[in-house]
Amino acid sequence: MIVSPDLIEEIQLLALFDLSSTQEGIKVHQHSASASAIAAAERLHQKGLTTQSDGGYLTSLGVEAAEHAQRLLAILTSG
Q1: 3-state secondary structure 23-76
Q2: Is the pTM of this model over 0.90?
Q3: In whole angstroms, what is the distance from residue 20 CA to residue 60 CA?
C-alpha cells in the first residue's frame, strides 16, 4: 500500500490531538491553514473520526485512529 499525500496529511492532523483529554479538540482555520490541511480535516469528518468538518473533537473511532497514528509516529521517530 502506498501512503498518499492525503493520508499523510490526515495522519498529521490526528497527531495534533491531545489524547490525555477528550475535552480538547483542534480547529483548522479556513483563513490561515493550508488547503491540504483544510481538506484533510473535512475528510476526517466524512470518515466519522471528528465531530466537525474543521476539526472539533475526536469521535470514539477517531480516538482509536489517533492512538494508532501517534503510536506509529512515536515508534518511527524513536532511536
Answers
A1: CCCEECCCCCCCHHHHHHHHHHHHCCCEEECCEEEECHHHHHHHHHHHHHHHHH
A2: yes
A3: 14
Amino acid letter, 4: S
Query: From first to last of its 79 residues, what are the pLDDT tens digits of the chain?
Result: 899 999 999 999 999 999 998 888 999 999 999 999 999 999 999 999 999 999 999 999 999 999 999 999 999 999 7
In the sheet with 26-27, reading across from the earlier edge strand, the strands are 26-27, 55-58, 50-52
**Going from the N-terminus, what domains does the chain have, and what CATH number goes with each?**
5-77 (1.10.10)
